[in-house]
Amino acid sequence: MEGPPEALPPRRRETLRLRAWSLRHIPLLFFLSPSVVAIDARRAVLRVPLTWRSRNHLGSMYFGALCTGADAAVALLALQALGGRRLAILFKDLRAEFIKRAEGDVHFTCEDGDEVRRLFDRAQATGERETARLAVVATVPEKLGTDIVARFELTMAARSARRT
């Protein structure tokens, strides 16, 4: 029997939080069964397994699943950076470059936590919609080591959620 959530290892606790949040807000993400590999204030690494849920007809990860993983890696940093602030957050655009076939579990890494916090600070200070372009790289460590299989640029928009 597991103890209270504080007793769980940090990666497991963050994975459970992500899955609970996604079940309520973005069921498609929940369906892909992501797990947190690493997270701190600056960097998030998320793993999406290659299963029948994420595989295309050629046996590699479907581009929609790849885009969802990139979205979730940035969202992990955003959820951590919110810190109780009431902000409305969404992705304004996405640019993707698919370099190699992802034929295994994919790790999505975003190292823009500082930029996410600056975005939230600007949005809260101005009360206006502010944007920031954030980068995510996808790798398949078990098969390709550090070789990049896809690159993503997502523009996140944030504004104060308070009513005026």
Overview of the molecule:
The protein is an alpha+beta fold. The protein has a single domain, classed as Hotdog Thioesterase (Thiol Ester Dehydrase, Chain A, Roll), CATH 3.10.129. 36% of the residues lie in helices and 30% in strands. It has five helices and six strands, in the order ααββαββαβαβ. It has helices at 10-25, 27-31, 63-82, 113-126, 141-144, and strands at 35-39, 44-48, 87-98, 106-110, 130-139, 148-160. The protein has a six-stranded antiparallel sheet with strand order 1-2-4-5-6-3. A hairpin with a 4-residue loop joins strand 1 (35-39) and strand 2. Helix 3 (63-82) crosses helix 4. The protein is globular, with a radius of gyration of 16 Å. The N and C termini lie far apart (48 Å). The model has no long low-confidence stretch (mean pLDDT 91).
Summed up, what is this model?
By secondary structure, this protein is α+β, with helices and mostly antiparallel strands. It is 36% helix and 30% strand. It has a single domain, classed as Hotdog Thioesterase (Thiol Ester Dehydrase, Chain A, Roll), CATH 3.10.129.10.
CATH homolog superfamily: Hotdog Thioesterase
In the sheet with the most strands, the strands line up as: 1-2-4-5-6-3
Query: Got a strand count?
Result: 6
Low-confidence stretches: none
Proportion of residues in β-strands: 25-35%
Question: How much helix is in the residues?
Answer: 25-40%
The span between the termini is 48 Å
The CATH architecture comes to: Roll
Which of globular, elongated, flat, extended, rod-shaped describes the shape?
globular
Average predicted local confidence, pLDDT: 91
What is the CATH C level class, in words?
Alpha Beta
Number of domains: 1
Structural class: alpha+beta
What's the CATH topology name? Thiol Ester Dehydrase, Chain A
- Counted by DSSP, the helix tally is 5
For the biggest sheet, the summary is: 6 strands, antiparallel
Radius of gyration: 16 Å
Task: Spell out the helices and strands N to C.
Answer: HHEEHEEHEHE
